[in-house]
Specification:
single chain, 281 residues, alpha/beta, Rossmann fold, Pantoate--beta-alanine Ligase, Chain: A,domain 2, 2 domains, six-stranded parallel β-sheet, three-stranded antiparallel β-sheet, 10 helices, 20% strand
């Protein structure tokens, strides 16, 4: 496994590999790896000749007073996990490498970023699409892998790739969960023991909503109220949003008539956690 921290070296190596006819799978991460990241890597190993993983905590997707400085980092640990999962190349650039002095170009996807986390975290997705577009041009992947836990992010990146004619297949794979249902996230490390126990209620609430839809309920207000009713008794948890949106435009729906994304975001202690399910009546 190679670790590369310079864009110029990465571009040169990818050019050589592409000339050799190698296909590239790409797993972009902010590090502090967990089984969710590693599952994406194993899928990439099945479908491409070599796997590139980026590890970069992207400063421009964090808002003021968010957790950029405190975001968990442990590169030696990440290296070991990446090697065990079969990563061939780690791309590990610095912020100065990605955004040198005078950097002034940004990528923004309209529409899909207006709701959910886009509404709660202004500017967040501009930072995401900017860094991922740079990574796509540097790594030149044939297939890029994302998890459904960050469903809005994955949809936005897929739309960006389509609109900008990027020759990359954006694949979205199922959320990887702990045994008790909590979606795996690097931010789970922020949770105290009590907060961690309470966090299980997020998936429980989503599963309850799924059962309501399976049982014939189609009124979004009733489903959202039920989700909130399950979460609110946990005093450590503050709801950011609970929303039901269509999976094409990510716009809120009042009545479920087709496939929808039931998504939520909450604050638990120092952590902001998100989760979702996709369901159709």
């Amino acid at each position: 496994m190679k670790t590369i921290d310079k864009i110029s070296r990465m571009l040169t190596l990818i050019k050589i590999l592409k000339k050799e006819g190698k296909s590239v799978g790409f797993v972009p991460t902010m590090g502090y790896l967990h089984e969710g990241h590693l599952s994406l890597t194993r899928q990439a190993k099945k479908h491409t000749d070599l796997v590139v993983m980026s590890i970069f905590v992207n400063p421009i997707q964090f808002g003021k007073n968010e957790d950029y400085d405190k975001y968990p980092r442990d590169f030696k640990r990440d290296e070991e996990l990446a090697r065990s999962a079969g990563v061939d190349i780690i791309f590990y650039p610095s912020s100065e490498e990605m955004y040198p002095e005078g950097y002034a170009t940004y990528v923004e996807v309209k529409g899909l970023t207006d709701s959910l986390c886009g509404d709660s975290r202004p500017g967040h997705f501009r930072g995401v699409t900017t860094v991922v577009s740079k990574l796509f041009w540097i790594v030149k992947p044939d297939i890029a892998y994302f998890g459904q836990k960050d469903a809005q992010q994955a949809y936005v990146i897929r739309k960006m790739a389509q609109d900008l004619n990027m020759d990359v297949d954006v694949r979205i794979l199922p959320t990887v969960r702990e045994k008790d249902g909590l979606a795996m996230s690097s931010r789970n490390t922020y949770l105290s023991e009590g907060e961690r126990k309470d966090a299980v209620v997020l998936y429980q609430a989503l599963k309850s909503a799924e059962e309501m839809v399976r049982g014939g309920e189609t009124e979004s207000k009733k489903i959202i109220k039920a989700i909130e009713g399950i979460i609110k008794p946990k005093s450590r948890i503050k709801i950011d949003y609970v929303s039901i949106v269509d999976t094409k435009r990510l716009k809120p729906v009042s009545k479920i008539t087709g496939e929808v994304l039931i998504a939520l975001a909450v604050f638990i202690g120092k952590a902001r956690l998100i989760d979702n399910i996709i369901i159709a009546p």
